[in-house]
Design a protein that fits this description.
67% helix, Four Helix Bundle (Hemerythrin (Met), subunit A), Cytochrome C Oxidase, Chain A, two-stranded antiparallel ribbon, 2 domains, 6 strands, 750 residues
C-alpha cells in the first residue's frame, strides 16, 4: 500500500490512537492510587519513574496529581477516543462503504495523521519540561491556566495542531462522501455509519476553530504579556498581579472552549452509534429499523450541539433568560438520542440474534449510553446543576458516555472489522473474557461515583476529600474503585494477546465470517488483505496483488488523486471535489476568524473602562496592497508574480508598522485594544503570507502542472481543469482575506 492509501492511513490512526488510549489509562491508574491511598507512598518500583520532583519520598504531590488529571482528560478525548472513532474507522471504511477507491484528497488525509501524531507528541513532551505538564484540568480554565507551568504552552501548541489535523481530515472526509460515491450510492442508500461520519466531520470542521482561537489568545497571555483572560484586580498568592493591562474576561475562554467541547461530545458519540448500527444489523440479521428517522436525528443532533454549549456555564452568573434558553435547548437535544437508541433496540425485534463478541459490546453500549444520557439531564437544568456541578456525579455521567459507552462501541468495531482488515477472526473465547471483565469492572469503577457526587464530594480534590466530613463515608469506595481499575487493565491483556496472535496466524479464516451484505465485505481481495495485515507475503501473493491493479488501473488511481480528476464536476452534486473542498476550507476559516472577532467584540462590549478611540492612522497602504494582490491574481504568470509580490509587500509593511508601534511603546501588553490589534492582525498577516507563498508556487513550480501539447502550454481553459481549479480556489482565498481584512481594520479604525 502507498503511504497515502486510505487503509494504511486508517490503520496508522487506529494503532496510534490505541497507544494513546493506553497512555491515558496509565495516567488514570496513577490518579486512582492517589485517590485510594492519599499520602501513602507509591510502589517502590514506580517512584524512580516519577522522580523526586513529582513524588518526594514516594508520596505524590498535589501539583503532580493535577498534571495527571489535565493530561488524562486531554489524551483520552483529543488523542485517543476521537481519532480512533472518527479518523481511524472513518478513513478506513467510509471509502469502502461508498464504493470509492480512495479518499478524495489522499495526501491531505495522510498529512492530517502526521500532524495529529506531532500534536500528541508535543502534548506528552510537556511532562519533561521544567515545572511539568499542564495542571489546570483538561479544560485549561484561566486565570489558572495562564499562570500555570511552562508545559501549558506545549498543550496549547498541541491543540492548535490538532485543530489543523481535524480540519484537513474533515474536509477530506466530507468531500469523499459527497463526491466519491459510486454510481447507485445515493443519499438515501448511504449506510448509517457513513452518515454518522459525515456529521462528525462537519462538527470538527466548524467547531474546532473556536478552540484554536482560544489557544492563540491564551498563548498571547502567557508569552506576549496580554490579558485576554486576566481580569482586573487579580491576586496571586496574596500579591496583586502587576505589569499587565488586565481588564480581560476569564469567561471568554469558557465560551470558546465549550463551543467546541460540547460538539466534541457528539464527535465521540456519533461514530460509535454508526459502528453499533453496523454490528447490530449484521448480528441480528435484520435491516436497520427507522433508517430515515436515525439519519434525521443525527443531522438534527449535529446542528443543535452547536447551540447548547453554555449549559456547562450555569454557575458563571448568566442571566435567567439566557439560562432558560440553554436549559430548553439541552432538553430538546436529548430527543434525537432517544430516537437513535430506540431505533437500535427496535432493530433487534424479531431478529435471529448471534451473541458474538462484537454483538456483546454493541448490546452493552445501549444501556451504558442510556445511563450516561439520562444522568446528564439533571446537569442541563440550572437548579439541579448548582448542587451537582464539579462533583463526582459529573465524572460518572461523562464517563458512562465515553468509557462503557463509546469505547465499548469501538471494541465492537474492532472485533467486527478485524477479519475485513486482516482476513482473520479474533478468538471468541478471549473476546468474551475481555467483554465480561471490562463490563463488570467499568460499572464497578463509575457507578459509585454517582453516589459520591450526590453526597456533594468535589471531583477536584487530590485526596478524595479526606479532610472533609461529608466525604468520610466515601473514602473506602475509592479503594474499591481503584482495585476495579487495576482489574480492568488486566482484562485488556486478553484483548492485546488476541490482536497479536490472530494477526500473526498463518491461516486465514472465511472471507466474510459474519455473512454481511454491506459493501465493504463485498470487495475483499484476500491477497491484499494478507499483505495489509503485516504478515509475511510471498512473491507470488505480491504478484497477484499487483496484477489486481494493472498499469492502466494504476494510472487511473493516480489520476483520481490529481488536480484534473478532482476538478471534474459531478452531475448529481453540480460541483467538483476541488471546489467543494475549497468552500469547506473557507467555512472553517470563517468560523476561525469569526471566533477571533467575536472575542474582540465581547472584550470591547464588556470592558469596565472606556474603550480607547480608533487607532491613529488608517492603514491605507496595507489595504491597497492586499486589495491589489487580489485584483492582480489570475492564471497568467505575470499576474501571478504581481499578486505574489504585492502579498509579500503587504506582509513586509504590516511587520514594519508593528515594529513602529512597539518602538513607540504601543505593545500588546499596553492595553486590551492593542492586544486585539496585534493578535488578530498577526493571524491575518500569517494567512496573507501563506497565500503569497502559494501564489508564488503557482507562478513557479506549479506552472509546470498545466498540460502541454507538442511542447506548448495549452491556452484553452477546457484543456486544463486542474489548473483552473487551483486558480479558482486561490482566488476565493484572496477574496476571503480581503473581506477579513476590511472587517478587521473597520472595527478598529472606524
Amino acid at each position: 500500500m502507498r503511504w497515502t492509501d486510505h487503509k494504511r492511513v486508517g490503520l496508522l490512526y487506529g494503532l496510534t490512537a490505541l497507544v494513546f488510549l493506553l497512555v491515558g489509562f496509565k495516567l488514570m491508574l496513577l490518579m486512582r492510587w492517589q485517590l485510594a491511598w492519599p499520602g501513602q507512598p507509591l510502589p517502590a518500583w514506580l517512584v524512580p519513574m516519577l522522580g523526586e520532583t513529582n513524588a518526594p519520598g514516594g508520596i505524590m504531590l498535589p501539583e503532580f496529581y493535577n498534571q495527571l488529571v489535565a493530561m488524562h482528560g486531554s489524551v483520552m478525548v483529543f488523542l485517543a477516543v476521537v481519532p480512533l472513532a472518527a479518523s481511524a474507522f472513518g478513513t478506513y471504511f467510509v471509502p469502502l462503504q461508498i464504493g470509492a477507491g480512495q479518499m478524495a484528497f489522499p495526501r491531505l488525509s495522510a498529512l492530517s495523521f502526521w500532524i495529529y501524531l506531532a500534536a500528541g507528541l508535543v502534548m506528552l513532551a510537556s511532562f519533561y519540561v521544567e515545572g511539568g505538564a499542564p495542571n489546570s484540568g483538561w479544560t485549561s480554565y484561566p486565570p489558572l491556566a495562564v499562570i500555570a507551568t511552562p508545559g501549558q504552552n506545549l498543550w496549547l501548541v498541541g491543540i492548535i495542531l490538532l485543530g489543523l489535523s481535524a480540519a484537513l481530515g474533515a474536509i477530506t472526509m466530507l468531500v469523499t462522501i459527497v463526491q466519491s460515491r459510486a454510481p447507485g450510492v445515493t443519499w438515501t442508500t448511504l449506510p448509517f455509519f457513513v452518515w454518522s461520519q459525515l456529521v462528525t466531520a462537519l462538527l470538527l470542521l466548524l467547531a474546532f476553530p473556536a478552540l484554536q482561537a482560544a489557544a492563540i489568545f491564551q498563548l498571547m497571555d502567557r508569552l506576549g504579556g496580554t490579558s485576554f483572560f486576566l481580569p482586573s484586580g487579580l491576586v496571586i498568592g496574596g500579591v496583586p498581579l502587576q505589569g499587565l493591562a488586565a481588564g480581560g474576561n476569564p469567561l471568554l475562554w469558557q465560551h470558546l472552549f465549550w463551543f467546541l467541547a460540547h460538539p466534541e461530545v457528539y464527535v465521540l458519540i456519533l461514530p460509535a452509534m454508526g459502528i453499533v448500527a453496523e454490528v447490530i444489523t449484521v448480528n441480528a440479521r435484520r435491516p436497520l429499523w427507522g433508517y430515515g428517522l436515525m439519519v434525521g436525528a443525527v443531522l438534527f443532533m449535529g446542528g443543535m450541539s452547536m447551540v447548547v454549549w453554555a449549559h456547562h456555564m450555569f454557575l458563571s452568573g448568566m442571566s435567567t433568560s439566557l439560562g432558560t434558553f440553554f436549559q430548553v435547548t439541552t432538553m430538546i437535544i436529548s430527543i434525537p438520542s432517544v430516537i437513535l437508541i430506540s431505533s437500535l433496540v427496535m432493530s433487534l425485534w424479531g431478529g435471529s440474534i448471534r451473541f458474538t463478541t462484537p454483538m456483546l459490546f454493541a448490546l452493552a453500549f445501549l444501556p451504558m449510553f442510556g445511563i450516561g444520557g439520562l444522568t446528564g439531564l439533571p446537569l442541563g437544568l440550572a437548579a439541579s446543576d448548582v448542587a451537582l456541578h464539579d462533583t463526582y456525579y459529573v465524572v460518572a455521567h461523562f464517563h458512562y458516555l465515553v468509557a462503557p459507552g463509546t469505547i465499548f462501541a469501538l471494541f465492537a468495531g474492532i472485533y467486527h472489522w478485524f477479519p475485513r482488515i486482516t482476513g482473520r477472526v479474533l478468538n471468541e473465547t478471549l473476546g468474551k473474557v475481555h467483554f465480561w471483565g471490562s463490563f463488570i469492572c467499568m460499572n464497578l469503577i463509575f457507578m459509585p461515583m454517582f453516589l459520591i457526587g450526590l453526597m456533594g464530594v468535589n471531583r477536584r480534590l487530590y485526596d478524595a476529600g479526606a479532610s472533609y466530613a461529608l466525604a468520610q463515608p466515601t473514602l473506602p469506595w475509592q479503594a474499591h474503585m481503584t482495585y476495579a481499575a487495576v482489574l480492568l487493565g488486566l482484562f485488556q491483556l486478553p484483548f492485546v494477546w488476541n490482536l497479536w496472535a490472530s494477526a500473526r496466524r498463518a491461516e486465514r479464516d472465511a472471507v466474510n465470517p459474519w455473512q454481511s451484505n454491506s459493501r465493504e465485505w463485498q470487495s475483499i481481495n484476500p491477497e491484499s488483505t494478507n499483505r495489509q495485515s503485516g504478515s509475511a507475503s510471498s512473491a507470488s501473493s505480491a504478484a497477484l496483488d499487483e496484477s489486481a491493479s494493472s498499469a492502466s488501473s494504476v494510472a487511473l488511481d493516480e489520476s483520481a488523486s490529481s488536480a484534473s480528476s478532482v476538478a471534474l464536476v459531478r452531475p448529481d452534486t453540480g460541483t467538483s471535489a476541488s471546489a467543494l473542498g475549497n468552500w469547506l476550507l473557507l467555512a472553517s476559516l470563517t468560523m476561525f476568524f469569526g471566533s477571533l472577532f467575536s472575542a474582540y467584540v465581547m472584550l470591547r462590549a464588556g470592558s469596565t473602562t472606556t474603550w480607547p478611540g480608533p487607532l491613529a492612522q488608517f492603514p491605507w497602504l496595507e489595504t491597497a496592497l492586499l486589495l491589489g494582490a487580489s485584483a492582480a491574481f489570475s492564471g497568467e504568470r505575470i499576474r501571478l508574480i504581481g499578486a505574489h509580490a504585492l502579498g509579500l509587500a503587504f506582509v513586509a509593511v504590516a511587520l514594519l508598522n508593528g515594529a513602529v508601534f512597539i518602538r513607540q511603546g504601543l505593545m500588546p501588553s499596553t492595553s486590551l485594544q492593542l492586544a486585539c490589534w496585534f493578535t488578530l492582525g498577526g493571524v491575518l498577516v500569517a494567512h496573507v503570507l501563506a497565500g503569497a507563498i502559494h501564489t508564488g508556487w503557482l507562478a513557479g513550480p506549479g506552472l509546470g502542472l498545466r498540460p502541454r501539447y507538442d511542447g506548448q502550454v495549452s491556452s484553452t481553459d477546457g484543456d486544463r481543469p486542474g489548473w483552473n481549479a487551483r486558480i479558482s480556489a486561490t482566488r476565493r482565498y484572496w477574496i476571503f482575506l480581503d473581506l477579513a481584512w476590511l472587517a478587521f481594520v473597520g472595527s478598529f479604525y472606524l
